[in-house]
Amino acid sequence: MAFRDILEIEVIGGNGGDGSMSFHRAKYMEKGGPDGGHGGKGGSIILRAVEGVESLERLLGRRKFKAGTGNGGEGRLRNGSDAEDIIIDVPVGTTAFDAETGKAVADLITPGQLKTVARGGAGGRGNSVFASSTRQAPRFSEIGVRGQKRKLRLELRLIADVGLVGYPNAGKSSLLAALSNANPMIAAYPFTTLSPILGVVSAKNDEERLTLADIPGIIEGASEGKGLGLEFLRHISRTRMLVYVLDVAVDPARELQALQAELRSYDPSLLDSMALIALNKIDTVEEDVAMIAEDELAKFGLPVLQVSAAEKMGLSELRLALFELLPSRELWAQTHALEVESDLIVVPALELELREEADKDGQVERIWMVKGGGFEEKIERFARHLEDAAEYLSGVFKRQGLYNALKRVGAREGDSVDIGGLRFEYFEDNDDSRR
């Protein structure tokens, strides 16, 4: 299966079921009370991180995910059932970004982690809930809330314990093969590795294991998008530890300096990661050349181990160092999780705008346009029965401070108030506005 680490999908939460407007009917009872049940909740779209999947390729056959609508309420106080959620399995290490805002909405770095990325709408309330001492026969109910709809950009940021970092032909693939059970393609030319390859490394006692990733070779300018740089650097950002693989015969100090410059340009925090240097191909140079190179690299403040993947030299020492220096998974997860969008529903701030319009007789009408504050959504939920619900809505708006807000900005008696196309007349001396 081809490696796929970026994918765009559309996710749509299900609408909530509508509340019922119903009145009890029974023999010998001509006018029963309201008994409309509530609508069920719409299904949500949820991402779930799973192990054993290293690519987003499995989702290629489907780019649109839509959850079901909640069932509507019925008479005799029967509530509609909730729709089922849709769970999309993605590889551990998947980050989801809102394609429109660019904000992260999910960052799945532990197996089994769940994140709702498109909420299902709440069910509408039946007319039974709106009955009161002064409103004994409410002839209105709520429409279910529409589900959340958005386009997502999924990015797989490979979750591996240790990442091998180096320029093309530094010997990363050979080192991975020598240390682990992986079988990467190995050849003496750059860019042998075109996608990350994972291997499992066992400790000497075989009781501990870690995953080792061969990240495709970086070139200078990778942080600016040259070559395949940005695609590869994204995977490096999620490893708990870095191993700089340097060719002892190709000015390793200069290569390390250039590698770190690329990492710093992409994400400065990468240089805070636990790291060591694997000075590779020592079998190709004299011993004193390798020692001089090690002394130069020591100035970077990182442990340096001389190895030869081809001749299996220094591998035991390197394996031991990996297990001793690797940070705990729990600590890493706490410090490397991205800040993601909150699950809380944010109500937009209230905005009041005065417009003046002349009618056909030349009379100027003052209209207050109301946006935000959640008032437009309330109007929408009673769209089927606005005539009958107008008085109830007026009371809701008053209790939630809309009239006080209008008074503070200079609303006058007789002004119109427009909320989502529905107009009320504003009265200072009344308990509510009138439609």
TrEMBL record:
Mg(2+) binds at S173, T193. Residues 160-327 form the OBG-type G domain. GO terms for cellular component: cytoplasm. SUPFAM superfamilies: Obg GTP-binding protein C-terminal domain, Obg GTP-binding protein N-terminal domain, P-loop containing nucleoside triphosphate hydrolases. Residues 346-428 form the OCT domain. Its EC number is 3.6.5.-. It comes from Deinococcus psychrotolerans. GTP binds at residues 166-173, 191-195, 214-217, 280-283, 308-310. Monomer. Residues 1-159 form the Obg domain. It is found in: Cytoplasm. It holds the Pfam family DUF1967. InterPro entries: G_OBG, GTP-bd, GTP-bd_Obg/CgtA, GTP-bd_prot_GTP1/OBG_C_sf, GTP1-OBG_CS, GTP1_OBG_dom, GTP1_OBG_dom_sf, OBG_GTPase. Gene3D superfamilies: GTP-binding protein OBG, C-terminal domain (3.30.300.350), GTP1/OBG domain (2.70.210.12), P-loop containing nucleotide triphosphate hydrolases (3.40.50.300). Belongs to the TRAFAC class OBG-HflX-like GTPase superfamily. OBG GTPase family. Its cofactor is Mg(2+). This is GTPase Obg.
